[in-house]
Amino acid sequence: MKNKIIIASILLTTFQTFAGSLNLELRGDLTSTSYNDAAMTAVATSKNNYIFNLQTLKLDGKGNINEATSYRLKFILNKSSVKETKRESANDWVEMAYLSNKLSDRFAITAGKFNSEIGGWEGNTPRIDLYMVSGGFSQINGLRYHTGLKFAYNCEDENSLSLQVANQEADSTAGGTTATSGSQIDQNRSVYGVVYKGKFFEKSLLPILSYFVSPLSTGNNGNPGSAGNVTATTDSSKNTYTNAGLRYLKDSWQADLDYGLISKKEVSSSTTDEDWTNMALKIGYKIQTLTPALKWFSTDQNAKTSTSSVKTKWDGTEISLDYMPVAEQNLRYHLAYNMVNKKPATADTQITTQIFVGLSMYADILK
To answer: Where are the alpha helices (H) located in 93-175, listed in sequence order?
Structure first.
């Protein structure tokens, strides 16, 4: 915590020196969680509870160094772990840290840790605005922010296309040929992907399409390593993520529709693969200071081997109400209720319900 206070002080000084903004992203909730008997039986640690918790506490700084170069630094201040992520030489509470340079009016290159824009509109919704996430969201979480390079092309009509190459989803340390085998980074492949964002019909329809491939590293300098989701047993093993999202904006209405297909190899063993299908829909309507919204999702998982197939299904429903008394203050009160059903192949349906009551803020603290 002392290190984070020092960093926060440095950031304040830096952003006061250079033109830019330093935003505080804060959300606090009273959260009530309850489970049915099947859920408590399936997971022994599932107990009915209510807690006051700090869902989100982040500092988000961004600005311009010159006309062609911009930067962004975003830190998670309430992260419980401060371990160093070996593959990117940064603590895991560094959410974003990058420089972006415009090569021309159309082309730009970004280097550092950035938002990959995977996962449709749900994947690109700030955590401060999420009360319930779909089953597919958890599967792309390791790719939402990654370290690498992004090449972007921006069209005149505000459509954009970006190509990305980045580190893998997690540290790969299964290989190594020295006495400290198992602690050596043996990443020898990269994540790569493409993202398209569009604006049509006077910016009322906003599609976002993405496709990412995450080849699994092979241990010992390219030779097949041990089984698992990071180290592959064959050179062809890879995870693929295909997502399509569409946002509709009209007057006071906003609707987001997302669809995703995920294929994961060697998840729990060298012979077990998983296919995921995910759909999510959220509809909101702003009435002056109030925004009621309804969200629904459906997720299917198929864990398969050469001789078996085990299917699990999730579906969830959420009702929420946001209240922003003064728009200029960026302060919001919220109330949300959701229910998620997990339907295993051979067991009873597990039901989890949550209620959130709290407030949030995203505001420039330098003003």
So the answer is: 120-123, 135-140
